[in-house]
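Lab notes, practical 5.
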Amino acid sequence: MLLHLPYKKQKTMDKHHLIQELISDTQEIVTVVEYTFSALDKAQLTKRPAPNRWSILECIEHMNIANAHYISQFDVKLPAAKPAMNASEFKPGLMGSYFVKMIKPKSDGRIPSPMKTMKKFIPELKVNDNTIRNFLVDQESIIKALELSKQLDLNKIKVTSAIGPIVTFKLGDAFRFLIGHNQRHIIQAKRVLENI
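Output from the prediction step:
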């Protein structure tokens, strides 16, 4: 896969502001799932708006698969990392910024570039009673990882992307990508609900 990355100087971000923003974004996601999707019955959760489009539950299960990929790395790498309280800035990487721009919804809710889902991230379920509960547990894990990261250097810790070792993210970009990915599919699931 050939990526055309425009070379431009990346702006630095205040680490604590970024982490707090990502925690707030994750809490908003949790609120939508708890108050909108948890109240639905199985028929609503599993109904597809079209044969080739995912149901709400499939959207959530897809996020669970992606979340697991990143959380497993956070669980190993973050506790082992040396504290770096003086590292107060995060400078996004070119690769990280490219993928975040591709995945994260626009401020008006528009979804940028449609993407083909890799086979290993396609949900294979009809009905799974644990899907929503697992998603909410994963969001707690992401918030804990973000809290722990307040003491770490978001630039130095590297995380393997879902594509594989060919693309690695700085920790800050991994969080930005993962949470942007969740926001994208929450919007997708809300649209499914409107259509069914």
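Observations recorded by the TA: The mean pLDDT is 90. The longest strand covers residues 164-170.
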